[in-house]
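Give me the fold.
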Amino acid sequence: MLIRTLPLSNGNYGGILQAYALQRVLVDLGLSPVTDLSVSNPLPAWGRTLARLVVRRLPAWCLRSRPAAEALDSVLAEELAEPLREFVSEHIAGTELFSRRGVVDPTILSGFTTLLVGSDQVWRRRYGDVRSFLFDFVGDRDVRLVSYAASFGQDHLEGYSPRLIRHTAALARRFDSISVRERSGVSICLQRWGIHAHQHVDPTLLLTRDHYASVGARGTDLSPGCLTYVLDDSAHGRACVDAVCDVTHLSETRLHRRPASYPQYRSAPAEYRRADVPTWVRAFADARFVVTDSFHGTVFAILNNTPFVTIANPGRGSTRFDTLLDTVGLSDRLVTSTDDARTAAEREISWERVNEVLERARDDGLGYLRAALLPHSVAPSLRHD
């Protein structure tokens, strides 16, 4: 079985952990999954090394050009992602489906009779070629096509032209079973693709808190009080963090700090070095409070029963937060102002109720995967309208 998700080479904690969780769950079901680890950077390894050497030596006046800026961004992203690669290589069985950008290796593809796409925002146009995440390169109908918790990222088909909607609808109708992560995704599938989809939680929620404790045991102890994992720096976000730290009387431990530029990073690389995956996981378990604008930051606060506040981040896809928090009855933890942040920080959470909901959602997701993927199981219906 081959799993396709957004490229793990991007160095995204949530993307890596959802891929890890989905693969681990499938192994526990007795399957032999392999994840496509094709890199998002089309350059070969030697080309990426050469690019790093070149951009480090560019004169200042070159940095203002668009090609140079794009090269710098690519090199910066790759260097920041370095601490996360060890976890991928150790814990995620993988192959490279694409021999080069946009070209599938037919030899590798022929080795799989089941293809599964998910999770993450694989069907969000701005993040990649959605047709490839609907397996447009598969012509053999004997191949089983399934999705699990695939996401559109928004509550509408952002960036889809009428032609692309028609094409993706035809591709989606070939699937044996379709599962989406957000409730809005169910509506999109019905209204724009004419199919009935099932809604399930993110793969990270299919594993238990105890499982992640074993992952985090290898991480560094940061002893966080108020752990902040904020992806988009802004005055508003800073004000919300300060408000929560003030209310909780906790000092801040920052888990994410992105340099504004590659030269800034090179001037103090240790200051911007990212935590490895086990340390990231452990931080959410050890924290006394969490402030984040990240979807998976919110997920891991909930998994660990750590009180949290999530700063609304519409640019990254608000519908993801809406479904997640509404599912566990914590919609009031999503804040848009410092006053909301203060109020939410003072409010206690009934974790017993949250954990009961998570257990039911976990059982539902595992039940879907069993039915969709195991021999002799009855797959969930995929009706066409």
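The mean pLDDT is 90.
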